[in-house]
Design a protein that fits this description.
With 254 residues, this protein is α+β, with helices and mostly antiparallel strands. It is built from ten helices and five strands; from the N terminus they run H-H-E-E-H-H-E-H-E-E-H-H-H-H-H.
Length: 254
């Protein structure tokens, strides 16, 4: 590992560890984690799925809207590597999706349309319980090296630890509660992104950047800002700033 990359890895773990000290926003931490994966690993994007108490998977974090839409597609079609990773509790590594059309006839074309041709997934777990899966999507054919796979799994462990912070016993009731908080928070954040995107005529990635920028500038949790927008106790104009435009919104990746 080069000294520069080693320093980036150290900084990523220090940042995530700092986030766990005191009150923190679980969903914001998970979003940051997917972005760290996309930057540190030999992949183009990352997404994270968590299961609710009924075992139904939900998209909780993603490094881009393209990734989020592909993760949602997996859930809607009930096929794909991240679902297999969650159901088996084992890592899935696909160097070239071209050879897996028969296995995932709907997922593979959907991934290719979005520019992804390889995918790797590692499980999130607490003790013997699988909580979800971290998906790593590549824009080039090829396997992740052992170091990157281990690093991806380590980052998934950090996400799992975030769900039991403050409860060393990791009892099932506490984990269930934290999972539900994360899932509920994601709903508020997606609603807020949609409102900002429409108001500013920007795409969802840009709307999320505006939302996160406001929360960080005012030292507020991302979920708190999103809930305030939903209940209209926070002015949309304050979050959007001077970004309102008459120009048509641009599709993600444009």
């Amino acid at each position: 590992m080069s000294p520069e990359r080693e320093q980036s890895v150290i900084e990523a773990f220090v940042s995530l560890a700092d986030s766990l000290v005191g009150p923190f926003d679980v969903v914001e931490l998970l979003d940051d984690l997917t972005e760290e994966c996309a930057q540190l690993l030999d992949v183009a994007a990352a997404g994270l799925l968590l299961a609710d108490t009924a075992g139904v998977l939900h998209v909780v974090a993603a490094s881009s809207e393209e990734t989020r839409s592909l993760e949602l597609f997996q859930l809607q079609r009930d096929e794909g590597p991240c679902l297999e990773c969650y159901r088996t509790g084992l890592a899935v590594s696909i160097a070239d999706l071209g050879g897996y059309v028969e296995r995932w006839p709907q997922f593979v074309p959907a991934a290719r349309v979005r520019g992804f041709v390889s995918v790797h997934a590692v499980p999130m777990r607490i003790q013997d319980r699988v909580l979800g899966a971290l998906g790593l999507f590549g824009s080039a054919v090829g396997s992740l090296n052992d170091h990157d796979l281990r690093l991806g799994q380590a980052l998934a462990h950090v996400a799992s630890v975030a769900l039991i912070t403050g409860n060393a016993s990791a009892d099932q009731a506490h984990v269930n509660q934290q999972l539900q908080v994360a899932l509920d928070s994601r709903v508020y954040i997606e609603q807020a992104k949609g409102v900002i995107a429409e108001y500013c005529n920007v795409n969802m990635d840009e709307a999320f950047d505006l939302l996160r920028q406001y929360s960080r500038n005012h030292n507020l949790k991302l979920t708190e800002v999103s809930q305030a927008l939903a209940t209209r106790t926070l002015s949309l104009e304050l979050v959007a700033g001077n970004r309102r435009s008459a120009q048509p919104s641009r599709p993600p990746g444009s």
